[in-house]
Amino acid sequence: MLSAWDRRDRPPEEVAAAGLQGFAMDKTFLSSVKGILLETELALTFIIFICFTASISAYMAAALLEFFITLAFLFLYATQYYQRFDRLNWPCLDFLRCVSAIIIFLVVSFAAVTSREGAAIAAFVFGIILVSVFAYDAFKIYQTEMAPRATQGDQQ
Fold this sequence. Notes:
Layout: H1 4-9, H2 12-19, H3 27-30, H4 33-54, H5 60-78, H6 90-112, H7 118-155
């Protein structure tokens, strides 16, 4: 971490680059399985938001909320900024994000399909696809992050 004394001794370009270094995007994360899952969730959530805006605007708030939550998780993981908050259990938060999104999109998708409009039916189809993506993400989180901790606790 740069102190005030170190900043005065360096050129302004180097100080600015060091200040923004914490928000550098990790391109290897964006091409990893977790990164691709988060990008897919983000894209499908945005498509569902557009479909709900075109047909039933009452349900668009749920899609918009999940869009912003997924965008925040993508930003935190891609910049490695989540490592600064070491007191939070990130795998558990990510798992709960997936489970809550599954419940929300199942309820909203089945409620939207009852209107029988074209955009609502498209939102239903994309919602079911998105639920399967969230379920796969929750399964991968549980399998890689949470299940090994349970087996380590049993061995001790």
